[in-house]
Amino acid sequence: MSSRTVIRGGLVITASDEIHADVLIEDGRVAALAASGTPAAGALSAERVIDASGKYVIPGGVDGHTHMEMPFGGTYAADTFETGTRAAAWGGTTTVVDFAVQSVGHSLREGLDAWHAKAEGNCAVDYGFHMIVSDVNQDTLKEMDLLVEEGVTSFKQFMAYPGVFYSDDGQILRAMQRAAENGGLIMMHAENGIAIDVLVEQALARGETDPRYHGEVRKALLEAEATHRAIRLAQVAGAPLYVVHVSAQEAVAELTRARDEGLNVFGETCPQYLFLSTDNLAEPDFEGAKYVCSTPLRPREHQAALWRGLRTNDLQVVSTDHCPFCFSGQKELGRGDFSKIPNGMPGVEHRMDLLHQAVVDGHISRRRWIEIACATPARMFGLYPRKGTIAPGADADIVVYDPHAEQVVSAETHHMNVDYSAYEGKRITGRVETVLSRGEAVLTDREYTGRKGHGVYTPRSTCQYLS
Ligand code: URP
Ligand code: ZN
Ligand code: ZN
Ligand code: ZN
After folding, report:
1. 294 lines ligand 1 (CB under 6 A)
2. Is the CB of residue 344 below 6 angstroms from any atom belonging to ligand 1?
3. Which of 145, 147, 228, 253 has the most CB atoms lying inside 10 A of its own CB?
4. Residue 344 CA: which ligand is closest?
């Protein structure tokens, strides 16, 4: 039996257009758009009508960077796929691409199977996987080809965290050469981890143990240096490159230079770098630990370069790098030694809202909001046009967004499984009202109507953003 819904009277915003239109959804997909008030719109009929007058109708968010249940520093990220994707739905994100982890000495397949087992049957919204490659060798290089064929088309490597996820330049070059052949996209954590470890050791020897020293040893120049090196290695390999969680203005400059040379080099930043700073890392009584992530928060001056990069398309994507650790019992593992604070911050629930606030504040336009949060991540990671837009044939992953509602972010009201909010007390104009995932209401007028197991694994094609 076919099920039809019409969303009437809203302003439909995509990366390319803003039109007052009614949207017909049939069997989980967008079937038609018709200009509101016209006979064509009047002819759209359905069992269910959602009134979106005065609201925005936008594509569901695509968060291309999450870490549900990620093992790190002797503990695990606090959100499971169940709690984390439910929080994503509350925040208007209808697709997450999470990072499966290869542990050293094991195969990519084992890591991927383990992540499928964690996610399957548990997700509220659709999900895909990137693969973290921690151990480049002849076997893993061959496995990369197989993963690309089955829809895991991007691979994260780390120039940081020696002894854990770290790859040296030779391993990185080999993986990039493979990606150049099989169409995979290398995603790079660009920080010079070897140099950082020296500075960590020296800081701790001086008795500098507070969270703020995490920001001081992980220097902007060491992010820029690694970004430069990754770009040149990718150029030598003839492979595209996507640099994750860019926070330093010097790193943005490296991306800008490479893009001006015409290279297929892309950059992602995250809300924490746009809205928070080293001031937060310096909060007293160990509160700064809440803001420990890598790359680290930077002095406020860096934010202007990030906003500029988002406007000039030197940065293309805003993802969350959602990797929550509770203050109590998890962040506290690093009391007396900042290097033992698990790295990562919660954020999957608030990306769409924080970026709407950026529209209100005049940093970006409405269409750019949808481009960096929905359309480009979908294209970058091979999910477009099924995800990331509202067009006939696309999955009906749609958010009815109230641009005038006022909200205050708080751990008391958020839905992530973590005991603090990095944005506690922040006022935001705009709020997610109703969320459809493949036509099914997962949030209805701010009441949760979703279910565990609705979200399905979504294999991806190769990058659709190459020039
Ligand atoms: O601090 C962070 N970003 N934790 C998650 C792992 C990573 O490097 O993305
Ligand atoms: Zn094994
Ligand atoms: Zn990283
Ligand atoms: Zn990450």
Report:
1. yes
2. yes
3. 147
4. 1
pLDDT at residue number 73: 86
Q: Say what the pLDDT of residue 467 is.
A: 86
Q: How confident is the model at residue 197 (pLDDT cuts 50, 70, 90)?
A: very high
pLDDT digits (tens, 9 = 90+) for 178-187: 999 999 999 9
**Which residue of 67, 188, 218, 295 sits with most ligand 1 atoms within 8 Å of its CB, as the best mutation to test the pocket?**
67
Domain count of the chain? 1
Its domain, for residue 175, covers: 61-380
Minimum CA distance residue for ligand 1 atom 4: 344
Query: pTM higher than 0.95, yes or no?
Result: yes
Q: Which ligand is nearest to the CA of 70?
A: 1
For 449-458, the pLDDT digits (tens) are 999 999 999 9
**Collapsing DSSP states into helix, strand and coil, what is residue 450?**
coil
CA of 294 to the centre of ligand 1 (A): 5
In a domain, 199, yes or no: yes
* pLDDT digits 0-9 by tens, 300-312: 999 999 999 999 9
Q: Residue 111 Cα, ligand 2 centroid: separation in angstroms?
A: 9
Residue 8 lies in a domain: no
CB 92 within 8 A of CB 432: yes
Which of 334, 345, 336, 355 is closest to 429 using CA atoms? 355
Handedness of CA 407, 413, 416, 418 (dihedral sign): positive
Nearest Cα to Cα of residue 57 among 26, 28, 43, 36: 36
> In the block, which residue shows the tokens 């087992």?
117
Residue 2 has pLDDT above 90, yes or no: no
Q: Which residues, other chains included, contact 371 with Cβ-Cβ below 8 Å and sequence gap of 6+?
A: 15
pLDDT of 1 > 60? The answer is no
Q: What is the ipTM of this complex?
A: 0.95
Q: Could you tell me the distance, in angstroms and rounded to a whole number, from the CA of residue 322 to the centre of ligand 4? A: 7
Tell me, in angstroms, the distance from the centre of ligand 3 to residue 123's CA.
Answer: 23
Q: Has residue 3 been placed in a domain? A: no
Q: 71 C-alpha vs ligand 4 centroid, how far in Å?
A: 12
Check which CATH number belongs to the domain holding 178 and give it.
Answer: 3.20.20.140
343 lines ligand 1 (CB under 6 A): yes
Evaluate whether residue 11 is within a structural domain.
no
Dihedral angle over CA of 349, 350, 356, 361, nearest 10: 180
